Amino acid sequence: LNNVPKVEETAAKLLEVNPKNLTVLVLLSTIFPQTFNPQDPAADQKLTAAAEHAKTGLEQLAALQKPAQISDDDFKKQKDQLESMFHHTAGVVALQKKDYEGAQPELHKSVELNPGDAMGVYQLGVSYLSAKPAKYDPGMWALAHAISVTGPAALPAAMQTQVKDYLGKVYEGQHGSKDGLDELLTQSASATFPPDGFHIKTVEELPQAAPEPAPKVAAKRELTVKAEELTSYDVIVKYLQAGGQKSDDTWEILKGTELT
After folding, report:
1. Which of 56, 100, 218, 221 is the least crowded, having the fewest Cβ atoms under 10 Å away?
2. pLDDT per residue as tens digits for the range 153-180
3. With contact defined as beta carbons under 8 Å apart, do 123 and 107 qualify?
């Protein structure tokens, strides 16, 4: 009937009877990230309860024995799926509490066990980028990979656009431009986590363009005529009529000069 409050109410009663009921813990941890509202007056209590459910669920999962009728591979797949979900819940709780350092290992483990969960990958990226200091390289990689995930666990189209815009702003802020962003998107599409040594150079690390050289000023040539030679009209006329360098130099000295 999709009556989530009634599910939570019934689950709480079941946990009163058996606090280690794995089926109930799985159910509550599944619906928590989808239904939690930070504006809920009971938000703090719900965060505390969700963290406890994830912790107890992981403990019960670790002690779970394989039924005889299930193969080893199928049992591992089921355990990995449940473990991923419990770690995801714990990571979301830490994110909501702004405990970004605490959220990172939980979300990393969740994504490691379930790399097709685009929302988990995105939240892992947020935990890296929101920390102080921020971890830009794994954070940008996670956002880029989250965008690339397809299928039923992909981000909604509108959210993909928002995440891509967010990634573009973070990338440009670090790198100084969007040069190389397309390569990051292509590279991250084939791997959940960045390779060892992955690093996007910051503006400070990029080679700086050499400053434009100042224009060279030609050395001033010594004139072939001295100003004191041009004291008579006859000499001036003579020099101007001489042509060549002497004429040019005479004119250079006379320009703007008032003759008396």
Report:
1. 218
2. 999 999 999 999 999 999 999 999 999 9
3. yes
